[in-house]
Automatic annotation (TrEMBL):
<protein>
    <submittedName>
        <fullName>VOC family protein</fullName>
    </submittedName>
</protein>
<dbReference type="InterPro" id="IPR029068">
    <property type="entry name" value="Glyas_Bleomycin-R_OHBP_Dase"/>
</dbReference>
<dbReference type="InterPro" id="IPR004360">
    <property type="entry name" value="Glyas_Fos-R_dOase_dom"/>
</dbReference>
<dbReference type="InterPro" id="IPR037523">
    <property type="entry name" value="VOC_core"/>
</dbReference>
<dbReference type="Pfam" id="PF00903">
    <property type="entry name" value="Glyoxalase"/>
</dbReference>
<feature type="domain" description="VOC">
    <location>
        <begin position="14"/>
        <end position="134"/>
    </location>
</feature>
<dbReference type="InterPro" id="IPR050383">
    <property type="entry name" value="GlyoxalaseI/FosfomycinResist"/>
</dbReference>
C-alpha cells in the first residue's frame, strides 16, 4: 500500500494564487480594485495582494521581490484570463466609464471549460488582461 501511494501523481484542484511583478504596488492595487472589483488585502509583513473569489494575486515590486521568486520577474510579462458573471456588454460599459481602452473584443475564445466571450485590456504595467463570460 505504501509503495502504491509513492507512485501517485498529485491531482491539482485549483489555483490558489499567482504572483505579479509590478512597477508600483499602489498603482496596481488602485487599478485592480477600481476596474476589476478586486479586494486589496495586506498580509505577512505588509505585503499586498488582490483577492477575488477563493484566489488572490500576490504583488511583488520589481527589484524588491520576495524569495523565492520567478527566474526573470519583470513587469508586463503576464497574460491572464478572468471569468466574470457580469454580461460582457456591462463589462464594456464599465471599462468605458473607467477610461480603460479595450484592446480587442468582444471576441469568441476557448477557455478552460469551453466557449467564452472575451474583451482584452492592459493593466498599468501593460500586462494583457482578458475578461470573459462563459457562453
Amino acid at each position: 500500500m505504501e509503495k502504491e501511494n509513492q507512485n501517485m501523481q498529485p491531482s491539482i484542484e485549483r489555483l490558489d494564487h499567482l504572483v505579479l511583478t509590478v512597477k508600483d504596488v499602489e498603482v496596481t492595487c488602485a487599478f485592480y480594485s477600481r476596474v476589476l472589483g478586486m479586494k486589496v488585502v495586506t498580509f505577512g509583513e505588509g505585503r499586498k495582494a488582490l483577492q477575488f473569489g477563493c484566489q488572490k494575486i500576490n504583488l511583488h515590486e520589481h527589484g524588491n521581490e520576495f524569495e523565492p521568486k520567478a527566474h526573470c520577474p519583470v513587469p508586463g510579462s503576464a497574460d491572464l484570463c478572468m471569468i466574470t458573471n457580469v454580461p460582457i456588454g456591462q463589462v464594456i460599459s464599465h471599462l468605458n466609464r473607467c477610461d480603460v481602452p479595450i484592446e480587442e473584443g468582444p471576441v469568441p475564445r476557448t477557455g478552460a471549460t469551453g466557449r467564452i466571450e472575451s474583451v482584452y485590456i492592459r493593466d498599468p504595467d501593460r500586462n494583457l488582461i482578458e475578461i470573459a463570460n462563459i457562453v
